[in-house]
Specification:
487 residues; mainly alpha; 81% helix
């Protein structure tokens, strides 16, 4: 319906309203129609959003977790050394998390569905182009940059979509959806090894690109949350109030609002946010080294490539159990996610520290399972802790910034670990650094009560200053009024 037709409909309604008023009858409210169907929180289509998020993370993060298997293949094929080859995976991991710094503005402007679809197309295009790679530098872009940005768009869209569709069962829904990455690692690890044996790395990447293209279909299930008033309804309401807004002007307003949201740095004044950024960066060091190099470390200590790939599968399925366990515990027991995050960080640190002294396949399998379970608890725990401490109103922006900080940290850390491996011939020192960082992150959680107390006191102080300012303003107005009245 064009603007002229809408104006005629509004004028006819007002004429009917006048006739009803004269006749003494009750006016009938206009029926607002919308093409967007209402979506209720915590039920109905919200669980389809959980399914779509699960499948998106199954594909994107499942492929991220299995890079260690491909890394071994890339080192043997291109013979560029551990450090140079490690940039392939580190760039992809950095972009997957670092893309969050601008994804928040895109989500505000275009919504979770469109942004996630764009991410799926970018990821599939980049990985398909890797089929023609002749050196590791080509893979920096085709395997690292493009799929990394695409994975970041899909990841944040999936997480934010769940936050919008759930209120009371948010922890449970988040745990279920984020377990998709662990299930993906469990399934794709032996599948990728089978593809490498059958089609070599070129054919394997082409098939994995086809899998990434399926995220477009799942992302289409991200139906926007509707509070009962769509943009079309809002336009009709504005017309009834005598205001005329063209679609171009509405888009300009949305674009400006998104830019303002992306350039809003007031969140950096929050001490809790700065602490979470520090915690996430340090904890990321403890996570990315074992996650990337467990298969390579296993090969160094004499375990076959086939069994090394199974270590990733074990890590993946235990990762799923850990993610789901945190969601269920926090939902059923109403337990704060902070203690669970501390347990996860401590457990990740212990498993990484003792890894260099465990050389048998059985003990390596047990360590991979324990690390995977703790890693899953930690990832969901960070998301829930962020919402618990900062609130949902700044979730999208804070989530993007924290993810970006983590991505940059992981990119540098993965390269550094590869450089150390070139010098020493193994990843023993890298694993010990990872364990120490995880333990340090766990110990730092004791600072949260102090930061909360400081934050509360600062809010009370700011409120008192506002009250004093208001009193002073009222006094000045009273004096001015007296000066006008008294001769």
């Amino acid at each position: 319906m064009d603007l002229d037709s809408q104006e005629e409909a509004v004028q006819q309604f007002h004429m009917k309203d006048t006739i009803n008023h004269v006749a003494g009858t009750k006016p009938v409210e206009p029926v607002m129609t919308s093409r967007r169907r209402p979506t209720q929180q915590d039920r109905g289509w919200a669980w389809m959003v959980v399914f779509a998020s699960f499948m998106n993370l199954f594909i994107t993060f499942g492929q991220l977790y299995i890079y260690g298997i491909l890394h071994t293949e890339f080192v043997d094929v291109f013979e560029q050394g551990e450090a140079v080859t490690s940039w392939i995976g580190s760039i992809r991991l950095c972009m997957a998390f670092g893309a969050g710094i601008f994804t928040g503005g895109l989500l505000h402007l275009y919504g979770c569905r469109n942004v996630s679809i764009l991410g799926g197309l970018l990821s599939a295009l980049g990985l398909a182009a890797s089929f023609a790679a002749s050196d590791v530098y080509f893979l920096y872009v085709s395997y690292g940059l493009l799929p990394g940005i695409g994975s970041g768009l899909i990841y944040q869209s999936s997480v934010v979509a769940i936050q919008h569709h759930f209120k009371h069962r948010q922890a449970l829904a988040t745990g279920i959806a984020m377990s998709g990455g662990g299930v993906g690692a469990f399934v794709l690890s032996p599948f990728t090894k089978w593809l490498l044996d059958l089609y070599t790395w070129r054919g394997s990447l082409l098939i994995l690109a086809g899998m990434l293209l399926q995220t477009v279909s799942f992302s289409a299930l991200f139906r926007p949350v509707d509070d009962g008033v769509s943009r079309k309804d809002q336009s009709n309401t504005r017309l009834q109030n005598g205001s005329r807004y063209t679609s171009l002007r509405l888009k300009c307003e949305e674009f400006l609002n998104s830019i303002k949201g992306m350039c809003n740095f007031t969140i950096f004044k929050d001490g809790l946010f700065l602490y979470l950024m520090m915690f996430y960066s340090v904890f990321s060091i403890g996570l990315c080294i074992p996650l990337t190099y467990i298969p390579r470390q296993a090969v160094f200590i004499g375990i076959s490539k086939q069994n090394a790939a199974m270590l990733v599968a074990i890590l993946g399925i235990c990762n799923t159990c850990g993610r789901t366990a945190v969601g269920v515990l926090t939902h059923v027991t109403k337990l704060s996610p902070i203690p669970l995050l501390g347990v996860a960080s401590f457990s990740c640190g212990i498993t990484a520290l003792i890894n260099p002294w465990c050389t048998g396949y059985a003990i390596q399998s047990a360590l991979a399972g324990l690390f995977g379970f703790s890693f899953g608890m930690g990832i969901v725990g960070i998301t829930l802790t962020q919402r618990h401490l900062l609130g949902v109103h700044v979730f999208a922006q804070s989530f993007g910034i924290l993810a970006a900080a983590s991505g940059v940290t992981q990119m540098v850390t993965i390269y550094f670990a590869g450089w150390v491996a070139d010098l020493t011939g193994n990843y023993d020192i890298a694993f010990m650094i990872a364990g120490s960082c995880s333990l340090l992150a766990a110990a730092s959680l004791g600072c949260i009560p102090l930061l909360q107390k400081y934050r509360k006191g600062k809010k009370l102080h700011d409120a008192q200053e506002d009250d004093n300012l208001n009193d002073a303003t009222e006094l000045e107005l009273a004096v001015s009024h007296l000066s006008l009245v008294v001769p």
